[in-house]
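Posting for a labmate who doesn't have an account.
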Amino acid sequence: MKKVDVVLGLQWGDEGKGKVVDVLTPNYDVIARFQGGPNAGHSLHFGGKKFVLHTVPSGIFRDGSMNIIGNGVVVDPVILAEEIAQIEATGIDMVARLKISKRAHLILPTHRALDAASEAAKGKSKIGSTLKGIGPAYMDKTGRNGLRVGDILLPDFMERYQALKDKHLFQLRQYDYQVDVDAYEQEWFRGVESLKRFEFVDSEMLVHDYLAKDATILAEGAQGSLLDIEFGTYPFVTSSNTLCAGVCTGLGVAPTRIGEVYGIFKAYCTRVGSGPFPTELFDSTGETLRQVGNEFGATTGRPRRCGWLDLVALKYAVMMNGVTALIMMKSDILNDFDTIKVAVGYQLGDKQVDYFPYEADDSIVPIYREFPGWNCDICNVRSFDEFPQQFKDYVAFIEAECGVPVKIISVGPDREETIIR
């Protein structure tokens, strides 16, 4: 029986997972999202066009691929229906290429309101939520109150919906938060009706059926490892398991069925929202990274915080995920730097540490190692041998420290701007 390969982010999200899945998809029959919600923004560039996917798996544009939204995902029918309509406008038969898990939870209009109310109540300690209702939806899931995609087809769906809505409205009154959900609710039900065109499946059985038939499957993660609810920079994290372990719970796959684990990282670091970021730069260098790298959220448009590569955090993510191959993105953004820095340790109070600690807060001071930059344009490079020696040295150092080979290097947003070693 085949195994499920995994592709996921090793930093705070925005590593470039959409492009990588799109590049890898020709090798796979099935692409399955295993966690997260429409807070994902996976950007794909090909044929002079750009697409941003929030819920739909990134293999959707490849002929012959099947795409599954797994049980670990939370679904907003409005956002998903809009996304489907945009893709269908390109001529793709979405009904034939996309299946949705019955066990995936629904994001209600009142979930969005609760998200906004909770974030407003936190004041200066706000997490930096995308305000799409994802956290409250996962809270209802663990609180055993949630509605699932499969419930849409039940005869008492409206009663179930109203009961959960009433519970949310009561909670909103405790926040003293006034909100009118009627307009979004009407749109929400139109989205629900649109989704009924699709096959709602027992996705765990479907995945295992594919494996039994020797189909190749790629599990696609959203956000990044350092945003994992268990092992990320809590409480400034997302509400799901972004690590490789999330594949097991988000698709119903046993640990022994996990194959290759592709870990994606940028040649530098970014973060959106609040929370610790040891290598963040507040100077002109940080602003240069932001502008040259176009570091603005694909989903929110928010400017991303930028900094040097944090090798301590990267090695932690490699360890936690069991990464078998590294994928380095946005290497070209560092083209014009005379010196490139990499954090190889932390000063934590009066001690130095080389691991990612529980006390991952703003008191951490990074310990840097400097590398000479390559000071040339590598965007047109199409084989590893063509890279300047300074770039090769940078890659070799990362490989040696992480103990994992860098198998793919991206030097631009397009499919073609990808070097596979």
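Reply:
Got it, the structure tokens are right above this. The longest strand covers residues 339-348.
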